[in-house]
Design goal:
Layout: H1 11-24, E1 41-43, H2 46-53, E2 59-70, E3 73-74, E4 80-92, E5 98-100, E6 106-107, E7 113-114, E8 126-128
Antiparallel strand pairs: 1-8, 2-3, 2-4, 4-5, 6-7
Region (Disordered): 109-134
Biased composition (Gly residues): 117-127
Length: 134
Amino acid sequence: MPKIAGRFFSKAEIDKYRGEFKKAHQPLADEPKNPDENRQAEYFSREILQQLLDTGCDGLRIYYGVAPETNGEIDPAGTAMMRRLFLVPVKIDEKGNGRDFQFKAIKSASGEKDGTPGDGGAGGGLPCPGFCNP
């Protein structure tokens, strides 16, 4: 059984660490110069998280990335390079090492294939600013 990774934090702790992140990270070239308007988070629906967990993985790894986007959506033809998150299922091997997990193609909420067999995961959450607490 893999070691439990992660723990719960209070709202005050999370707010503190989010503030430290804002102070430590300068905006990317395409991001607004006001730090309060820079990418702070992404929302992923329960359906996406559940499909990843249903692959038989032991947990999820969240990668930081930078991807082209148009109007807040990842778009290979997009011109604005923005910070994005990518969620990848992970399987713990017999030596206790976490490895990105290969899984079969999953379906989107519309029932269409969303991805291809092999390594992969989820991305394209709803970005904040944009989809944030009011």
